[in-house]
UniProtKB/TrEMBL annotation:
Keywords: Membrane, Transmembrane, Transmembrane helix. It comes from Camelus dromedarius. InterPro entries: Golgi_pH-regulator_cons_dom (IPR022535), GPHR/GTG (IPR015672). The keyword Transmembrane applies. This is Golgi pH regulator. The keyword Membrane applies. Residues 108-173 form the Golgi pH regulator conserved domain. Belongs to the Golgi pH regulator (TC 1.A.38) family. It catalyses: iodide(out) = iodide(in); bromide(in) = bromide(out); fluoride(in) = fluoride(out). One of its GO terms (biological process) is intracellular pH reduction.
Length: 246
């Protein structure tokens, strides 16, 4: 029962969309033309109706309107119908209309120019689209950076040196903390009121050194990240240049 109700709703909406497409075709698209082809109007209205119905089904899917099986059935049916119209009916009628309007015994210059113009514009559009895609891909290698193995090795060497410096400075920080711990500078703090004031106003002898080393380590780590990104970029550029040359 729910399937019949859903189908009646979809058929009613298709009839309304068909009528709207018919009126739009008559009053907007072909209002200045005296020659009217009713088959063209029907095909346009049917295509418009099924297209709007598919958009309506998308909205119903989002809002949860109608049964899911009914939505799926009408979606498949509308998709098959609109593909049949666009793939078979419209090209067949266009070809039939062109052949039926060709008069071999009265073929004027204007008709020849119009047909040749349509073909020429179509070919120019195809060639321009192909050139717009193929030309940058073909000549991209001229604008890419010339990356050699020496450049990559030099950058990798700088990265390894930076990592060695980071490791050595972290070892130095660890040794400094160990020395401070052994001397009791971190644990044996003075007690009492004057001891608290002294601990606030003064700092441990090795704390300034640790702060400076930590700042150097942070700077070196940032430099290592930049060098790593540059190395990866060089590898990607080299691979892209080889693919372009092939």
């Amino acid at each position: 029962m729910s399937f019949l109700i859903d189908s009646s709703i979809m058929i009613t909406s298709q009839i309304l969309f068909f009528g709207f497409g018919w009126l739009f075709f008559m009053r907007q698209l072909f209002k200045d033309y005296e020659v009217r082809q009713y088959v063209v109007q029907v095909i346009f209205s049917v295509t418009f109706a099924f297209s709007c119905t598919m958009f309506e089904l998308i909205i119903f899917e989002i809002l949860g309107v109608l049964n899911s099986s009914s939505r799926y059935f009408h979606w498949k049916m509308n998709l098959c119908v609109i593909l049949l119209i666009l793939v078979f009916m419209v090209p067949f009628y266009i070809g039939y209309f062109i052949v039926s309007n060709i008069r071999l015994w009265i073929l004027s210059i204007e008709q020849l120019i119009s047909r040749v113009g349509v073909i020429g514009v179509t070919l120019m559009a195809l060639l321009s689209g192909f050139g717009a895609v193929n030309c940058p891909y073909t000549y991209m290698s001229y604008f890419l950076r010339n990356v050699t193995d020496t450049d990559i090795l030099a950058l990798e060497r700088r990265l390894l040196q930076t990592m060695d410096m980071i490791i050595s400075k972290k070892k130095r920080m660890a040794m400094t903390r160990r020395t401070m711990f052994q001397k009791g500078e971190e644990h044996n703090k003075p007690s009492g009121f004057w001891g608290m004031i002294k601990s606030v106003t003064t700092s441990a002898p090795g704390s300034e050194n640790l702060t400076v080393i930590q700042q150097e380590v942070d700077a070196l780590e940032e430099l290592s990240r930049q060098l790593f990104l540059e190395t990866a970029d060089l590898y990607a550029t080299k691979v892209q240049s080889k693919e372009t040359e092939v």
